[in-house]
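Notes to self after the call with IL:
- keep both proteins in one doc
- input above output, always
- annotate only the second one for now

Protein 1:
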Amino acid sequence: MACVANGRVSTVTIVLIVLQVAISQERPDIKVNFEVLKPKGLRISIPDSSSSKISLFAFNGHLNRAIGSDDVGSIRGEVTKATNGRWEFEDPNVELKVGDVIHYYFIVTVDRVGYVIDNLTYTVGNLDNRSGGSNPNCQSSVTVIRGSTTPICSGQTIFEDHFDSLKENVWQIEQYIPIDNPEYPFVSYQRLPSDPTVSIVDGNLRIVPKLQQNQPGFTNMSIFTDNLNLFDGCTAPACSKQPSGADILPPVVTGRITTSKSFVFKYGTVHIRAKLPQGDWLYPEIMLEPFLKKYGNTNFASGVLKIAAARGNKELNSGPQDYGNKVLYGGPVMDFDCRNEVLKKNVLTNGRMWGDDYHEYSLRWSPDRIILLVDGVEWARVEPAVSGLAGRLPRSCNHVPRMLLAGGTRIAPFDDSFYITLGVSAGGISEFEDNLTSKNGWPKPWSNGARKAMLNFWKDLDAWYPTWSQSALLVDYVKVVAL
């Protein structure tokens, strides 16, 4: 019954499990400690036990209203490791006053047995001055790092990598077939033993797409006949594929890396200096993806933040409209059918392409708005309407009622934890509209809704593959700064 996201069971889905496990167990005598900070902030903890082994502490609470043991709290945290003898987390955004009442329950796993301790309240009696830790000038930030209890100061760099080496304790190199990706790209993500898709070259991260038929043991006919087996090192459920008729193997092998295992955060400014890939029907994956998928099982349902993207075709048109490498786009994606309603565009008019040079692409993500910048200059922002970010979209967007029912904030679905994703993809059914033409009026070779879309893309290989002379995504650095 539980949903496992990136190897972790979420607080929402763990409730039913622990209820079943602990129903016949005597509840442990554990007291929750509250430290209410001023001007704002709340620190919640339980003591570590020397006589029994605690492996999880999860808290869910509402301010001045009741909460059920199957609700997700507006005040919530999950801790999987004790620090200095306490299981502690801090929410720096809560502003409380004397007399406020927190209605809460918590989940604790003791000696591998889970317990739900519910129907609890805490009344605020006094406020403690925030010391700011060892930095007396620290101004508390709304930025949150998942799993960290250390106070974060505004302007603090909370993540940075200049790619002097490929730090595999930071970045997970993906290996799987993205069959449940709503963009349905015509690729597989692979960690190749030789001639890798992901590498460090001259101090830059390099992610480059290749052809499956050129890999050892494959030929051009392998697309129709050979099984693709990625079980050794697979990082997602789809680890193999056997082609059948028009349902061929993904013709493109590419790379993707994420911080899903090491760095997950909420709110902040992300800076990525990169040179975007060029080549027909390619596009970069430079984005933030949801960690727990709070608003639905797909990434689009729970929101994706595209920091920067530009289609790889140097010439790409639909009538007078330009869709090629001169057009930068980015912003929130909340629903597959409505993705273009909020995505913003920035067109170069100096004769250059976005893939010709390095640029610093930035995204400032706050509880109030999402701002896109390039080379330090703001070029777009998205702000919630009165009814929230969902209120900016047509009623036909099917995610709207789901977010309202889930009790999301005005910035929902971008009010939960996200991780960084970098990669290169090709084709698919969302990045390239139908009826586009590339160089010399050459038509897009597939229709997005067609059963033979990937096959028709591959059959046009002689037209698009020669354009992939600068097909790599090159990244100089990634940096995240607290708000």
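Protein 2 (the one to annotate):
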Amino acid sequence: MKQIKIGAITIGQAPRTDITRDILPLLPDYMTLTEYGALDDMTYEEVMSQFAPSEDDEVLVSRMRDGRQAKFTERFIRPLVQQKIDQAEAEGVSAIILFCTGVFPEFRHQVLFIEPQPLFHAIAAKLAGNQKIGILVPEPDQVEQAYHTWGKSGISIEATSASPYLEFDKIVEAASFFKDKDLAFICTDCMGFTMEMKHRIQEITGLPVLLPRTLVVRILCEMFS
């Protein structure tokens, strides 16, 4: 089979080695992954000072190249993501994955564009039926946002927060929040959550966990197999 070039766009900085160590083993030999970061040309200090969210903004969290967590607003990052989509298409990719589960207006694209959020919500809704699910978001100020966003998709949730970019112990603590609750399963609502974190949450709660990074890659592989 001929080589297929895939673009991966993070709303933070590339490379996202924390994501690719989980997803590269899932890609067939004929697929190559080229990464693009919306914040590649900015410093951490510039992002934190210029893109800081205000009270009513949609809050997003991502990772800088040096591993630091950055928090910013969707309205600032959106045009930078569009620039990277345009760049990836100009460089000949056959498909693009967005490394973010946030909610965005529709992006302009010519090739297959895999945006995790609508896929994640649609699959979770079908799997949950009328049951409640657990949602883990990175930041406390995203919890209320999660109730609103998932509620719009018709899904009843219990939400709490723990960043995948900070202390692992906080993930363990957050997982305990879901223990013994009447939930169908748990969704980790950020591309930053790892396979290791997924397995630890499963151990603590006894519940299945839906991980967006591996979900979207498996969909991608199905499309091109």
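Annotation: The two ends are 9 Å apart (CA to CA). The beta strands are 4-10, 31-37, 59-63, 69-73, 95-99, 112-114, 133-137, 157-161, 186-188, 209-210.
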